[in-house]
Amino acid sequence: MSVVLSLLWPDMPVEVVKLPEDEDGLHFGAFIEDPLGKDDLVAVISLFVEPLPIDKVPVHSANGSNGALLDNDPVLVPSEVFAVRFRKFACRTDAQGQGVGTALLKHAMHFARSELKAEVLWCDARVSSADWYSRRGLSQLGPKFYKGPVEYVCMRTLLTEDSHDVRCSTPV
C-alpha cells in the first residue's frame, strides 16, 4: 500500500485509500533486486472481477432500423462481457521508464485472460496517464469525469489470444 499511497495519494491517510473490497482483489507486485540483494517492491497492481460500468452496445431503437446506435439516440446499457478491473496501479518514480510498469500491466492482462477468463480489462485512468495506457492498447470508454480534484477517464482493452503482447513504446 505504501507504493500506491506515495505515488497516487501522497497527502491522504491510508484509511482513506484502503477500501473494504481490497480484500477481494488479486494483488501483484514487481520487484527489483536492491544493492544488498533483497527484493525491493517497485510497482503494484490489483485486479477485481467487476463489470464495465456502462457500455454503448447496439440495441433495437425506435429511431434505428437495424438496431445501430444513432448519434442523436445513444442508449447506455450494462455490458454483458466478462470484465476485470484493475486499480491502484503504481510504479515508483525511480523505476519508471524501465519497462517495469508495462511488464506488470502485461502480466495482469495475461492473468486476467488466462486465469480469470476475462474478455475485457478496464480501469479508471487519470487523464494525465491516459496516453501511457493508449500506447499499451487501452482505449477510452465514455467521457472524462472527476474523483475529487483529479480528472479521470474509463479505459478498456479487449483481451484476446495475443493481448499479452502489449503494444509498447518502451522496451521491456
UniProtKB/TrEMBL annotation:
Family annotation (InterPro entries): Acyl_CoA_acyltransferase (IPR016181), GNAT_dom (IPR000182)
Molecular-function annotations in GO: acyltransferase activity, transferring groups other than amino-acyl groups
Superkingdom of origin organism: Eukaryota
Annotated N-acetyltransferase domain residues: 88-158
Signal peptide residues on this chain, from the entry's feature table: none
Protein name, per record: GCN5-related N-acetyltransferase
Pfam families to which the protein is assigned, alphabetical: Acetyltransf_10
